[in-house]
Amino acid sequence: MKKWSLIDDKAFSGAVNMAVDEYLLFRAENGHVPPVLRLYTFSPPAVTIGFHQDPGRIVDMGSLARDGIDLVRRITGGRALLHAGELTYSVTAPLGPPFFPGGLQKTFLDISRAIVDALKSIGVDAGISDGRSFSQGEGHSSPCLVSTSRHEVSVKGRKIMGSAQRRTASAFLQHGSILLRPASEGIVDYLKGDWKDISSMITSVEEETGSADLDLPLRKAMIDSFADVFGTGFDEMSIDGDGMTKITSGAKTKSSEFMEQKKSEGTG
Fold this sequence. Notes:
This protein has 268 residues and is α/β, with parallel strands linked by helices. The chain has one domain (4-264): Bira Bifunctional Protein, Domain 2 (BirA Bifunctional Protein, domain 2), CATH 3.30.930. It is 31% helix and 23% strand. It is built from 8 helices and 12 strands. It has helices spanning 14-29, 55-58, 61-67, 104-121, 205-209, 215-230, 244-248, 254-264; strands at residues 4-12, 36-42, 46-49, 70-73, 81-83, 86-94, 127-128, 153-155, 158-159, 161-167, 171-179, 234-236. A 6-stranded mixed sheet has the order 10-11-6-2-1-12, sandwiched between helices. Strand 8 (153-155) and strand 9 form a beta hairpin. The longest helix has 18 residues, at 104-121. The chain starts with a strand and ends with a helix. The relative contact order is 0.20.
């Protein structure tokens, strides 16, 4: 089987991160390319909202401005998520053989298996949820982390990751946040409405292992587990061939022009 591509990335703003993932989906749709596994973080912290969510209805803009939190719309579905103290992954690939011949559920399950294996290897007793539960009211405006859907990753019923997928006619993007340390429960501070503390519903790598310094070990574990689950190796990749810094500093490659356009579109 042909090797996957790997982008082991650093921290970028929410706008850049979402534009990179969108570009990778665009690339998968428009060429016979291998899947891409991308690992990254957010700086500054950001709230991302699902493609169909109305920020004016669900987000407290004043609280975001007060704390210097970015707001960005994802092209995937799902609900609001605070990206802080976590490692984000994305997988983009063409649909169909040889890499992803199954449907949405199988794709989601296979990726979850790889993430469970990675978490187990660093001491987190993670598993794959077989049900769906909601609390604090089921609704479009509720935080992503208050529900656990089928095939998502949890630890003894507590959510440790939130993921979302976008499928087109020929490719898919799945991305999600693995909670490294307590932080993402702060999403309730940035949503309209009276949301209670959700910390009892979620957990993190730090809480499960007692270690606050597992970002790099988790990155390595993710690379190893995806290689094992999907029976592949990795070729390192950068978007424009010269490194990610060129993308955010004005290099006029096809990818950088695409991301500049997306940044100019804002959160809408």
